[in-house]
Amino acid sequence: MKLSVYFCNKFCVSKIFFITFVTLMILSPCLAFSQEKEGDQGNRRFDRESFLVKRSAFITAELGLTPEEAAAFIPLCEELQQKKFEVGQACRKLTKDVRDMSKPTDSDYTNVIDECLEVNLKEAKLEKEYYEKFKEVLPPAKLYKYKQAEYKFAREFMKQSGERKFENRNK
């Protein structure tokens, strides 16, 4: 019995490693191409496709998702993130508009605050809705790790972005 569990665990880890390796090998030329394009354009700010690939790989690794779990979970994550992005557009636009004004009024500030609070409520509703969907795909322990992985990825991404900006500024 122990031998079969050992073999299954070793096989599953090997399978995950193989899938990750193949994915990276397939995506490496794409990432290299996007970096070349970025160098050519100079001011390119954000490569969404590269970001999504890195985020998906990070979450898959941090949660220890099986290929089946990843196939079901990652599209739901991306769908949630897209909906949250769309919900937040009005808040981002108003924030930018107020920042660009020479002398914003109290009414302008109030509109931004009200809209952004509304966005927070809508995002919380979306998270609750998707939490129910996530529960159907992942066990509770992995679902718990998901939020931590999201925050960890965001911190690392922002740190790397800050380092790149600093390097570009010193060139």
Description:
It is a single chain. This protein has helices at residues 2-41, 48-63, 67-100, 106-137, 140-169. With 171 residues, the chain is mainly alpha-helical. Helix 2 (48-63) crosses helix 5 and helix 3 packs antiparallel against helix 4 (106-137). It is flat, with a radius of gyration of 20 Å. Residues 21-34 and 36-42 have low confidence and may be disordered.
Briefly characterize the structure.
The protein is mostly helical and 171 residues long.
Write the layout of secondary structure elements.
Elements: H1 2-41, H2 48-63, H3 67-100, H4 106-137, H5 140-169
Number of strands: 0
The number of distinct helices, counting runs of at least 4 residues, comes to 5
Low-confidence residue ranges: 21-34, 36-42
| Estimated helix fraction | over 70%
The assigned structural class equals mainly alpha
Strand portion: under 5%
> What is the rounded Rg?
20 Å
Cα end-to-end separation: 61 Å
Major beta sheet summary: none
Mean pLDDT equals 79
Order of helices and strands: HHHHH
Q: Shape from CA axes?
A: flat
